[in-house]
């Protein structure tokens, strides 16, 4: 056997690769340990459906595995899937989308990386809501962009407004980009339709690229979500099969791109991933069939019941204020009467009850030298994607813990 010589220098570590950890991973690790010893863990920290892909999708996957080569597809995806996604925009939002503008990606995560690379230079300023989905911040940061997190409190449903964009622009000029998510993670709130239209116009007028994360569309309870595409403009709209379609691990998402980004994104995707997973793409074509939609809508009915249960029972935790949970499967709960150290509180809760929640600092990291009103130290995210009786049991346990 040949001996490998010891390295002469330590490997290089780039600063840009040193992204923030997901603090929920610590909770998941602790939950795994507890599950092994106690077997009573209820993971309300997991941001994914508890159901498999619809039957029609699983059957399409089986047919594709048996009958197709499943080699690489075009970098922008299977043409049948791109056409199916484009037709979904006509049916759902009444907007015509040319399938040539649809890029199929490795989850929506793959779309964000490619779009950020295609649209933003190193040093460009991109705005996002705080609290917000951490991967926007971490990916943009790794790409050398300057992320400005807008403090969004409960009074605006934790969402940015035109007034906030104006205030930023007065002092710093128009940003290169704005990321919106509606419904949002971690709050489940929607941007109201008129505000979404106004922000879309604001961005178009100032040359700011709006990246509209619409991956929770389909999971709304009282009114449907609106797409940024309905207001015209040149927004990038990002979608995914992960959430409504219950296909997180299949890793298929998409972006609807303004014409100018199609070729750069095609080249980037071809280099970064070659293509999205072929079996997932072949199966995803069946996700819009009436049988699949019927199955998926029954999950949404359960999420709605779960939302109502959470809203009804939060007062028993001493929580009396909650921004309207319009969609997705999250409630972002202010627990400031219980703690100012959400990671510690989540750990203690897990130890005492077996219920795992996500500390708010994943979505709004806190710097003790620069405290902000939106610091996630006072919030936790609860995911109600699971079944209703288990959710009820988890809520009972938390009530017993906080009223002990
Ligand atoms: C707001 C938001 N955007 C994007 C993603 C990434 O999802 P995926 O890559 O599975 O489409 C997530 C995942 O939780 C999310 O919550």
Automatic annotation (TrEMBL):
Its EC number is 2.6.1.-. GO terms for biological process: amino acid metabolic process. CDD domains: AAT_like. It holds the Pfam family Aminotran_1_2. The keyword Endoplasmic reticulum does not apply. It is an enzyme of class 2 (transferase). InterPro entries: Aminotransferase_I/II_large, AspAT/PAT-like, NHTrfase_class1_PyrdxlP-BS, PyrdxlP-dep_Trfase, PyrdxlP-dep_Trfase_major. It comes from the Bacteria. GO terms for molecular function: pyridoxal phosphate binding; transaminase activity. Keywords: Aminotransferase, Pyridoxal phosphate, Transferase. The keyword Calcium does not apply. Its cofactor is pyridoxal 5'-phosphate. Residues 40-397 form the Aminotransferase class I/classII large domain. PROSITE patterns: AA_TRANSFER_CLASS_1. Belongs to the class-I pyridoxal-phosphate-dependent aminotransferase family. This is Aminotransferase.
């Amino acid at each position: 056997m040949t001996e490998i010589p010891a390295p002469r220098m330590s490997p290089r570590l780039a600063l840009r690769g040193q992204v923030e950890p997901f603090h929920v991973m610590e909770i998941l690790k602790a939950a795994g340990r507890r599950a092994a010893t106690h077997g009573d863990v209820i993971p309300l920290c997991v941001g994914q459906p508890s159901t498999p892909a619809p039957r029609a999708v699983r059957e399409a996957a089986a047919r594709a595995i048996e009958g197709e080569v499943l080699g690489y597809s075009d970098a922008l995806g299977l043409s049948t899937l791109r056409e199916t996604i484009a037709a979904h925009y006509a049916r759902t939002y009444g907007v015509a989308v040319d399938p040539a503008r649809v890029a199929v990606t490795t989850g929506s995560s793959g779309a964000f990386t490619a779009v950020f690379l295609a649209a933003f230079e190193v040093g460009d300023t991109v705005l996002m809501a705080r609290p917000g989905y951490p991967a926007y911040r971490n990916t943009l940061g790794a790409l050398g962009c300057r992320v400005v997190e807008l403090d969004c409190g409960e009074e605006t449903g934790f969402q940015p407004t035109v007034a906030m964009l104006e205030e930023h622009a007065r002092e710093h000029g128009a940003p290169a980009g704005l990321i919106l998510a509606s419904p949002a993670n971690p709050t489940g709130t929607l941007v109201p339709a008129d505000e979404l239209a106004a922000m879309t116009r604001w961005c178009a007028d100032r040359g700011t690229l709006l990246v509209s994360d619409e991956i929770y569309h389909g999971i709304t309870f009282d009114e449907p979500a609106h797409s940024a595409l309905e207001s015209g403009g040149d927004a990038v709209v990002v979608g995914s099969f992960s959430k409504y379609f219950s296909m997180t691990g299949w890793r298929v998402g998409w972006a609807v791109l303004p014409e100018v980004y199609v070729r750069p994104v095609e080249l980037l995707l071809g280099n970064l991933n070659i293509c999205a997973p072929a079996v997932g793409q072949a199966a995803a074509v069946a996700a819009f069939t009436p049988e699949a939609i019927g199955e998926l809508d029954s999950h949404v009915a359960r999420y709605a019941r779960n939302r109502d249960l959470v809203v009804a029972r939060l007062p028993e935790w001493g929580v009396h204020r909650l921004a309207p949970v319009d969609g997705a499967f999250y409630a972002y709960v202010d627990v400031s009467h219980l703690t100012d150290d959400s990671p510690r509180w989540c750990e203690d809760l897990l130890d005492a009850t077996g219920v795992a929640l996500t500390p708010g600092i994943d979505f709004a990291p806190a710097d003790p030298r620069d405290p902000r009103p939106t610091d996630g130290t006072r919030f936790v995210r609860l995911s109600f994607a699971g079944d209703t009786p288990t959710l009820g049991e988890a809520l009972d346990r938390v009530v017993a813990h906080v009223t002990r």
